[in-house]
Structures are given as structure tokens and as C-alpha cells.
Amino acid sequence: MSITAGIDVGSTYTKAVIINERREILAKDLRPTGFKLSEISKTVYESCLKMAKLQHSDIKYVVATGIGRHQVLFKDVHVTDLTAAARGAKQLFPKTHSILDIGGQTMKASRLDDAAKVISFRLNDKCAAGTGAFLEKTARYMGFSTEEIGRLLTTSKEPVPISGVCAVFAESEVINHLSQGTPPSDIMQGAIESLVGRSAQLIKRVKGEPEHTIVGGIVRFETLASSLREQMGSEINCPPADLVQFVGAYGAAILGLIRLEKLGGQRERAFEAGA
User: Where would you tag: which of 61, 69, 114, 224 has the fewest CB atoms within 10 A of its CB?
Assistant: First the structure.
């Protein structure tokens, strides 16, 4: 049986997924990335091995992705996060032709062909206002933890606009709204809708076509997906809640299976692949 692993070392969280030849997930784990990238990648991988009751020798191929993919010392090959997300999203939603990936530090939009190849992509401006980090910073400024953002959003009644084009200016708007007595829930929802506006523009820049799929940790806040649907005027696919942060790692593991098939089942270490 061919069993592969995908390791996604993101700027905020590191994820690992182990799958079998039927592309079924045997184990998955997620931990904060921190600063020791090689160590955290090994930790999540070994955690998955333990959960799946597997040995290192049982894994036929390991594919790394994400910003820290070069630091995964036990990988067989690495791929870009765009390539991995495309493969994972296409597996979950076969008709996907556009992907919006909102992470802690980046936001990426890509357009795919029928074979899950990335044919166009765009990244957000180099500013935290277009990422999950801005939402977390906004919550902390108002005295809430990241875990409380979801609950806070459900109580919003009248979102206020957050129009700042960078995190510094947007933070000034948050301070101004607080000084005027605006409820934190309405400020938080305003920040979500600001991010949604940036997301919609990014999808348009890659000439995104339906079906659209949104991935990344930020998707766990349900109001973001509903706001994006409203603004885009079309359906948006969302992975199950327990998979939203694992699409890249899952896609990397699938690419491992594809790579193994191309190699005739023989393991071969390589540096870069776009299977």
C-alpha cells in the first residue's frame, strides 16, 4: 500500500497530513510554527505517525510545502503552496477553477485549469491588512483572543467600514471607532468585510472563474465566506471545518502519490516538483 505525507510549514501554523493510496486521510495534526521550522515540521509529522500507528518506513513519500518547505529536512521533494493548495482543493471540490487562500501573513488568489495546474495567480500587497494577522491584531487590541473572534462576529448588528489600505491606517480607524463607542463586534465584522473586499478584488485580478474555493485558517470564521458569497454574487466552496487549514498539506500528500506513480513506485529524492 502506498502511504504518503504532506507537510505544510506556514507562517503561522505548521500542518501535516498522512494519506493512503485511496487519498483517505489517516492522520492530521497542526501546531503553531514558531521559529524552529525544521523542529516543528518533524514534530507534526511524528505526531501523525503516532496517530496513524505507522512507522517512518511505512511512508513511501514525503512532500513539503509552505513558506518553510525548504526547512523540512526529511522531505523527498517540495512544491509551492499554490501547487499544493490547487491539488487539495481540486480533490475536495473537483470543479474548482479559482482558489482564494487567506493565511496568517498572506492572501493568494489563483486560477486553475481542468488538470489542477495553476495558470494565473496574484498575491496581496505587502501589508497585514489583507491577511488573518490583521483580524487577530484587531481582536487583541479590543481585548479579545483569537479564539473569541468567531463568537464576537455572531453578535454584530451594524458593521462599520474599515477602509484603511494598510494595517497602520486600518488600526487608526479601529481606535477611532472604539473612541466613539462602537461595539467591538461591529468593528470586528467591519474588519472581516474589509478583508472580503480585498479578496474579491484579488480574484478578479486573476480572472477567476467558478467554481470558487476558499481555503486557509481564516475560513473557520463563517461570516467571511458568507460575506464573500454576497460580494461575489456566486457560490463559494468551503472545506469542512476540520480541513480548512489542511488543504495545502493534503494536496502535498496527494502530489506524493502522483509522484510515486510516475516513478513506478520507487522512491527517489528530488528537490522541486510540480506534479
Answer: 114
User: Is the per-residue pLDDT at 152 higher than 70?
Assistant: yes
From residue 166, alpha-carbon distances to 102, 109, 178, 201, 221 in Å are: 16, 19, 19, 15, 22
* Gap between the Cα atoms of 222 and 212, Å rounded: 16
User: In 3D, which of 56, 63, 61, 88 has the Cα closest to residue 77?
Assistant: 63
Q: What is the pLDDT of residue 125?
A: 63
* Cβ atoms 181, 111 nearer than 8 A: no
Closest CA to 196 of 157, 224, 215, 154: 224
Distance CA 179, CA 187 (A): 12
Q: What would the mean pLDDT of 111-118 be, rounded to a whole number?
A: 95
- Residue 202 amino acid letter: L
- Per DSSP, helices labelled H in the chain are 37-52, 81-92, 132-141, 149-153, 167-179, 184-205, 222-232, 247-262
Cell of 174: 479601529
Output the pTM of the full model: 0.86
Q: Which residue has the higher pLDDT, 147 or 239?
A: 239
Q: Which of 118, 51, 114 is nearest to 84 (CA)?
A: 118
Query: Can the peptide bond before residue 211 be classed as cis, meaning omega within 30 degrees of 0?
Result: yes
Rg of the chain, C-alpha, whole Å: 19
Q: List the one residue out of 271, 269, 250 whose CA is nearest residue 20.
A: 250
Q: Are 72 and 85 in contact (CB under 8 A)?
A: no
